[in-house]
Design goal:
This protein has helices at residues 13-25, 39-45, 61-65, 85-90, 103-118, 142-153, 167-172, 181-186, 207-210, 230-239, 254-261, 277-297; strands at residues 2-7, 29-34, 51-54, 72-75, 94-97, 134-138, 157-161, 176-177, 190-193, 218-221, 244-247, 265-267. The protein is an alpha/beta fold. It folds into two domains: 2-101 and 276-297, NAD(P)-binding Rossmann-like Domain (Rossmann fold), CATH 3.40.50.720; 103-267, NAD(P)-binding Rossmann-like Domain (Rossmann fold, 3-Layer(aba) Sandwich). It is elongated and about 60 Å long. The protein binds nicotinamide-adenine-dinucleotide (NAD).
Length: 306
């Protein structure tokens, strides 16, 4: 089969080699299409592809229209809001992600962000310690669980909530289960967001919820910028000069937020949660293996458009 590795933001060279080795050993042919700038370039590149591996690349209905032989798209990573799932289903294309493969990289960044904000963005001003503080984890999936374990090791009290997990499952993952999102926000010095971006979650964290946070609290977002309602965030930062926001990728109103609130707000210049050599390799190799099993055995274990 013809497998196209299409990544605007390239994989590390070692990851590309590993992906090629897995695919070629199974008799597939791989080509690499990197650093493209326009969506139209991707549309041209997918003409012959029977399988596609992507990262944050947008697979729109137009891309799917331009890929008549395509059978499977694997998003090497966790979030798949960059793929038009309805259009893929309509085209009979299976979409998968590679859950958990980059979770540790994102979890380490979330912990680093808490410390970065607690220590006044590494300026000499007097900071605070995270030991003894309470961390509330919103969604206890692959990243959330790892953030919890790391935070516990650093001496934090860890609570979590997840609408798809029971209290027992959360307790088994090492966190104290919370009964409502409101009480999680109200009782946490840090809230770390790990929900996926879906129609239900986009814009769901806004003024009402954030304003419940206790004095001096920090909201940490390594999920997607879209889950936070930017106007609500701006309003609450205005009303509550004690709150802080740190995020992996700038909100659209970042310039205004920095101007108004200075160092109470920080955004990474480019999404970097999964940008480690290890995560690149893990997610890329998992994507290649999933494609091999899909064509060999029809395995659709990680399909997200069922
Ligand atoms: P995951 O699928 O393992 O966990 C997601 C959790 O969210 C699950 O436990 C699920 O029960 C819960 N959930 C699902 N729908 C929900 C809803 N409507 N409301 C509340 N909770 C819901 O995913 P993960 O690997 O932990 O990643 C979490 C998110 O982090 C991803 O969806 C992605 O958007 C983001 N992410 C960001 C980066 C980055 O580079 N910053 C990298 C990887 C993932």
């Amino acid at each position: 089969m013809k497998v196209l590795l299409a990544t605007q933001k390239p994989f590390a060279a070692a990851a590309v080699k590993g992906i090629r080795d897995i695919l070629e050993a199974a008799g597939h042919e791989m080509s690499v299409f990197e650093k493209y700038e326009q969506a139209s370039e991707l549309e041209a590149a997918v003409a012959d592809a029977e399988a596609l591996i992507i990262r944050s690349d947008k697979v729109t209905a137009a891309v799917l229209d331009a890929a008549p032989k395509l059978k499977i798209v694997v998003r090497a990573g966790a979030g798949y809001d960059n793929v038009d799932l309805a259009a893929a289903t309509a085209h009979g294309v299976v979409v998968m992600n590679t859950p958990g493969q980059n979770a540790n990289a994102v979890a380490e960044l979330a912990v680093a962000m808490m410390i970065f904000m607690a220590r006044t963005q590494f300026t000499p001003a007097t900071g605070s310690e995270i030991q003894g503080k309470t961390l509330g984890i919103q969604a206890f999936g692959n990243v959330g669980r790892l953030v919890g374990a790391k935070a516990k090791a650093l001496g934090m009290n860890v609570k979590a909530i997840d609408p798809f997990l029971s209290a027992d499952q959360i307790a088994a993952g090492g966190a104290e289960p919370e009964t409502s999102l409101e009480s999680l926000y109200a009782s946490s010095d840090y809230v770390s967001i790990h929900i996926p971006a879906t129609p239900e979650t986009i814009g769901s964290i806004g003024y009402e919820l954030i304003s419940k946070m206790p004095k001096g609290a920090t909201l940490v977002n390594t999920a997607r910028k879209e889950v936070v309602d930017e106007a609500g965030l701006e309003k609450v930062l205005e009303a509550r000069p004690d709150l802080k926001y740190v995020t992996d990728v700038a909100p659209d109103n970042y310039a205004a937020l920095r101007e108004k609130f200075g160092m109470r707000v920080f955004a990474t210049p480019k999404k970097m949660g999964a940008q480690t050599a290890e995560a690149n390799i893990n997610a890329g190799l998992a994507a290649a293996r999933q494609i091999v099993s899909f064509f060999e055995t029809g395995c659709v274990k990680f399909q997200v458009n069922k």
